[in-house]
C-alpha cells in the first residue's frame, strides 16, 4: 500500500503523532524483527486484517500458554540474521565456513521453534514453519546437533586421511626437537598436506553450497515466517501492555461515513500522567465525512485529540491494535497532521506561509484521494478578521472533497455543519481549587456538540483563578457580554 503523510518525511510525521513512542515500547526479539519495525511500512488491506486476527490469536495464547510463549521468545533471541546468506544461496553463490556456521545455527533454532509452534499454531499457515531436517543433516553429517560448524571428515574421505597424516607428522616433529633438518623436512610435508586439505575443503564448500541451492525457497520461507512470528508477538505484547484494542477497519470499497472512536487515549500522555500519580480521561470522537470543527480554551486538550486521532489511524494502517476501547476506521491513502510544531519557514517565508503551504498540499492531494486531514489552529498568527475568513474558506473547500477533516480553531463565526467543543472546567469543582497548577485536574476533556451560539468564557475564568486584578477581569467580562448581545 502507498500511504502519503503530511509532513511527508515519515520520521517527522511519526514524531508529531507520537508513533515514535509506540516504536520505543516494542520489543522484537530478532534482528530481522527489529529492522522491520525500524523501517515499518503500511500494509495492504488484506495483510492488515491478517495482522489484526493473528495479534488477537497470539494475545489469547500469551494469556493461556505463557510458559510456551516465553520459551519461543527465548529461541527467537537466538536467531541469527541469515538474510544475506540465504540471498547468496538463492543466487547460486558459494558459501564460506562462517556463513555455513551461521546457517547451521539458524536452522537448528528454527527447527526448535517449529517443534514448539506446532503445538499451538498448527491451524495457522502463516506461523507454520517448514521442516528443515534435510538442511540440518547436510550441515551436521555427524548428527551431533551442536551449534558449531566444521568441515567434517564425513564430507570427504580424503579429509580423514590427510588430517590423520598431519597429526602423525606433528607428533613426530615434536619428538625430534634435537634434529633441525628432520624437523624442517616434516614441516614441508605438513605444509603440503595443509594445502591439500584446503583444496579438498574448498571442494566440499562448493558441493555443500550446490546442495543448499535446492533449499533456497525453504530457507527463505523459514526466515520470513520467523520474522512474522516475532512481529506479531511484539504487537501482541504491546497491545497487552498499553491496553490497545482491535479496530474495525473498513475496506476502500466501503463508503464509511463516520470515523467512530470510543474511549480514545494517548499512550504517551497517559504514561506521563501515571508517573505523577494522575489519571487520563479518555474521550469519544465522531468524525463525519466533510469538516468537523472543534473549539475550546487553551489547555483543553484539542491538540491532543488531533494527534491521537492521527496516531490511531496510522497505527491501524500498520496493522497495530489502537489506543481506544472501540474504533471504526476507513482504509485511507493520506493522513495529514498540520500543527504549530511543524511550521518550518520555507526560504524566509513566515510560519503562516509554511502552514498554509502544508494545508494547500493536503487540499490538493485530497481531491482524488481518500484522506484524513487534521489541522490545528490554522491562521492563528493572522488578525481575527482575516483568520476567520481563511478558516471559513477552508471549511467550505474541504467540505467539497468528502474527506474526513477536523479543524481546531479559536475564531468565532466559523460556519460549519459539525461542531464540537471541549466541555472545559468542571463547575462543581472550581470552588475547591487551591492553585493554578490544579486547573488541569479540573478540566473535563469530553467533546460535546456545540451550536456556536454560546460565548466561551474559559480564558477569563482562568485569569480570575490566576489572581489577575479584578478590574481587568470584570472589564473583560463586560466587553464579552456586550459582544454577545450584539
Automatic annotation (TrEMBL):
<dbReference type="Pfam" id="PF00488">
    <property type="entry name" value="MutS_V"/>
</dbReference>
<dbReference type="InterPro" id="IPR000432">
    <property type="entry name" value="DNA_mismatch_repair_MutS_C"/>
</dbReference>
<keyword id="KW-0175">Coiled coil</keyword>
<dbReference type="InterPro" id="IPR036187">
    <property type="entry name" value="DNA_mismatch_repair_MutS_sf"/>
</dbReference>
<dbReference type="InterPro" id="IPR027417">
    <property type="entry name" value="P-loop_NTPase"/>
</dbReference>
<dbReference type="GO" id="GO:0006298">
    <property type="term" value="P:mismatch repair"/>
</dbReference>
<protein>
    <submittedName>
        <fullName>DNA mismatch repair protein MutS</fullName>
    </submittedName>
</protein>
<feature type="coiled-coil region">
    <location>
        <begin position="152"/>
        <end position="225"/>
    </location>
</feature>
<dbReference type="GO" id="GO:0030983">
    <property type="term" value="F:mismatched DNA binding"/>
</dbReference>
<keyword id="KW-0547">Nucleotide-binding</keyword>
<keyword id="KW-0067">ATP-binding</keyword>
<keyword id="KW-0238">DNA-binding</keyword>
<dbReference type="InterPro" id="IPR045076">
    <property type="entry name" value="MutS"/>
</dbReference>
<feature type="domain" description="DNA mismatch repair proteins mutS family">
    <location>
        <begin position="289"/>
        <end position="481"/>
    </location>
</feature>
<dbReference type="GO" id="GO:0140664">
    <property type="term" value="F:ATP-dependent DNA damage sensor activity"/>
</dbReference>
<dbReference type="GO" id="GO:0005524">
    <property type="term" value="F:ATP binding"/>
</dbReference>
Amino acid at each position: 500500500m502507498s500511504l502519503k503523510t503530511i509532513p511527508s518525511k515519515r520520521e517527522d510525521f511519526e514524531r508529531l503523532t507520537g508513533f515514535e513512542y509506540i516504536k520505543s515500547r516494542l520489543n522484537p526479539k530478532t534482528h530481522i524483527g527489529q529492522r522491520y519495525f525500524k523501517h515499518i511500512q503500511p500494509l495492504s488491506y488484506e495483510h492488515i486484517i491478517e495482522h489484526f486476527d493473528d495479534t488477537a490469536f497470539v494475545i489469547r495464547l500469551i494469556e493461556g500458554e505463557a510458559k510456551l510463549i516465553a520459551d519461543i521468545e527465548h529461541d527467537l533471541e537466538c536467531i541469527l540474521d541469515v538474510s544475506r546468506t540465504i540471498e547468496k544461496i538463492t543466487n547460486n553463490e558459494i558459501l564460506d565456513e562462517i556463513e555455513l556456521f551461521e546457517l547451521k545455527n539458524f536452522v537448528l533454532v528454527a527447527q526448535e521453534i517449529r517443534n514448539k509452534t506446532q503445538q499451538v499454531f498448527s491451524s495457522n499457515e502463516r506461523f507454520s514453519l517448514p521442516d528443515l531436517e534435510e538442511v540440518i543433516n547436510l550441515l551436521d553429517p555427524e548428527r551431533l546437533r551442536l551449534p558449531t560448524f566444521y568441515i567434517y571428515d564425513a564430507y570427504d574421505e580424503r579429509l580423514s586421511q590427510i588430517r590423520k597424516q598431519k597429526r602423525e607428522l606433528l607428533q613426530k616433529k615434536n619428538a625430534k626437537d634435537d634434529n633441525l633438518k628432520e624437523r624442517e623436512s616434516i614441516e614441508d610435508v605438513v605444509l603440503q598436506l595443509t594445502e591439500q586439505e584446503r583444496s579438498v575443503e574448498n571442494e566440499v564448500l562448493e558441493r555443500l553450497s550446490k546442495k543448499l541451492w535446492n533449499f533456497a525457497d525453504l530457507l527463505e520461507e523459514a526466515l520470513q515466517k520467523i520474522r512474522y512470528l516475532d512481529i506479531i508477538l511484539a504487537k501482541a505484547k504491546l497491545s497487552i501492555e498499553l491496553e490497545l484494542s482491535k479496530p474495525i477497519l473498513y475496506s476502500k470499497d466501503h463508503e464509511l461515513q463516520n470515523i467512530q472512536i470510543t474511549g480514545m487515549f494517548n499512550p504517551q500522555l497517559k504514561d506521563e500522567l501515571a508517573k505523577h500519580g494522575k489519571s487520563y480521561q479518555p474521550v469519544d470522537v465522531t468524525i463525519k465525512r466533510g469538516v468537523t470543527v472543534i473549539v475550546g480554551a487553551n489547555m483543553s486538550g484539542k491538540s491532543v485529540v488531533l494527534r491521537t486521532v492521527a496516531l490511531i489511524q496510522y497505527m491501524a494502517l500498520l496493522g497495530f491494535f489502537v489506543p481506544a476501547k472501540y474504533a471504526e476506521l476507513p482504509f485511507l491513502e493520506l493522513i495529514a497532521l498540520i500543527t504549530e510544531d511543524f511550521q518550518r519557514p520555507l526560504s524566509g517565508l513566515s510560519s503562516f506561509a509554511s502552514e498554509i503551504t502544508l494545508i494547500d498540499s493536503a487540499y490538493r492531494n485530497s481531491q482524488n484521494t481518500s484522506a484524513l486531514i487534521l489541522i490545528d489552529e490554522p491562521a492563528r498568527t493572522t488578525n481575527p478578521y482575516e483568520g476567520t475568513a481563511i478558516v471559513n474558506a477552508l471549511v467550505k473547500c474541504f467540505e467539497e472533497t468528502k474527506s474526513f477533516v477536523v479543524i481546531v480553531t479559536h475564531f468565532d463565526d466559523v460556519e460549519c455543519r459539525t461542531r464540537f467543543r471541549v466541555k472545559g472546567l468542571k463547575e462543581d469543582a472550581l470552588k475547591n481549587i487551591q492553585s493554578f497548577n490544579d486547573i488541569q485536574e479540573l478540566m473535563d476533556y469530553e467533546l460535546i456538540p456545540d451550536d456556536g451560539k454560546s460565548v466561551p468564557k474559559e480564558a477569563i475564568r482562568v485569569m480570575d483563578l490566576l489572581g489577575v486584578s479584578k478590574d481587568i477581569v470584570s472589564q473583560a467580562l463586560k466587553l464579552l457580554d456586550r459582544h454577545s448581545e450584539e
